[in-house]
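Posting for a labmate who doesn't have an account.
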Amino acid sequence: MIETYGQLIHAARQHHDPPMTAKAFADKIDVKPPFVTDLEKGRRLPSLETQKKIKEVLACDEYPELLFDDLAAISNSDSRVVAEDISTFVRKSAAIRNLIRAIQDRHLTAKEIDMIASNIGGTDHDAK
């Protein structure tokens, strides 16, 4: 059973016609072979640009998940996955990191977080 993005990539690569070696796949998506190994084992996540290349190389009827542009949409079971736009924003803002730590330290529930978001004019993006 495929549970992670890396497992999905590995399965799609093996079912490609003809099956692709990690090296051949790495060459097609402009990365080094060890990156493919790390990706498939869940040790690394691809950039948005690399995701698009993966989609172009491997997308097929057997793996429609590869047609998605958003890694988070593909791999909801992987708690390490954060949408790239949010990840970039968090990395650039110490205030956001402090806010996230405060939420974590206080063990706020999803409902409490939604209430805070509505008080500052935010929307519930996950509910859409």
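Reply:
Got it, the structure tokens are right above this. Residues 5-74 form a domain with the 434 Repressor (Amino-terminal Domain) fold (CATH 1.10.260.40).
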